[in-house]
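Backbone shape codes
____________________
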Amino acid sequence: ALGRAAGGSEDGENSWKQFHKPQRVGKRLVIRPSWEAFAASEDDLVLTIDPGGAFGSGGDETTRVCLRLLEPAVCPGDRVLDMGCGSGVLSIAALLLGARAALGVDIDKAAVHTAADNARLNGVGDRFESRWGNALTDRAFAVSLGLGYDLLCANIVADVHLSLREFYYDKLRPGGALLLSGIIEEIG
């Protein structure tokens, strides 16, 4: 949590905002925080995502890679499952790109609420559902997520991908697309 800067000024409380600016992450997708103006072109799809406690404000490379890959992967009418949804940025992008519905899942309750708030902020709250739970440890929860997704995306760490590999294949419809990221190579 951010506290007040020395002297308790509100400026100090909000000084972190200067580091978050609108950024293009694909041919059409642009992420912007709500306090920053952006003059969008006719073809731009602007995602308003406020950085907060949930992962995925677009500042990290793994989220940007996912967003770039989503643009050509989403087909109109797709059903999307977003595992480890964080801020909801991938689900919201998929919905703006034409997906019919998206389900965002996270083990962090705060992330689930943030994702739902961000979906409403972007005008896609009626097509987005967020669920809190752990598909690795709770079989009933995993089953409750349903089957037949056209696109499954997950921007989480590699060991979790490995543990969820059978889950991923079970959830996708035959011929569905799997978009995985979050695998970070350590150098040194």
